[in-house]
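Hi U.,

Before I forget, here's the chain from the pilot set. I'm dumping it here mostly so it's searchable later in email.
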Amino acid sequence: MTAQPKAPAHDHERPWADQEWAQFQQVQRMVNHWDRPAWTPGRRSYHWMVMLGHVPALTAMAMHCQEQLRDLPHLDLVPTASLHITMQRLAFTDEVSPDVAAAVVNEVRRRCVDFPAIPVEIGPLAGSPGAVRLSVGPPEPVSRLRDVIRDSIAEVRGPAALPERASRFAPHVSIAYHNAAADALPLIQRVASLRHLPPAATVIQSVDLVELRREGHQYVASIQAEVLLVS
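Structure:
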């Protein structure tokens, strides 16, 4: 029997990162991230995202990790210009009108008029059954911003329109998506060897509504509206 990789020493300053790593170590099988029946060919979606491709420390770390993962099968590497935190899906574009999307943007702006910019650390590396990703924390202020977005959607469209439960949110930045069912252990072992890298520090100064489309095994985001936080 092959032993599970030993986790590095716990980082008590980043308990959220410890938790995500512990959860990833329990994954036995990776899945195909792209196996999502609702994403029919040509379909697009409105998502709220924090775009991070402009953060040099993050892009450098992501590129280093991707280079160390490149020889593993079944990984689709995320272009560094597209690095992001997915905050909340609004709806597929065929489910809401542009006017409704604009009303949600206005509501988010109204509720964020006094919302402060959020200092975060991105890293170390961890994963989920469908992706390799960097932990983001502290998660609480990011979750509060997500709550504002969710409350805004509920105000405009009604609570039943919220597609995910609030409790499932763990902010992260994916650097690669997994594209097939496979044993998770080789990937977990490789990720373990990269967890010593120091996190990248940045400040979340805005959140964007994007129109998201899939081109092959990549997401392409087109920014529709930007909501600034208070610097």
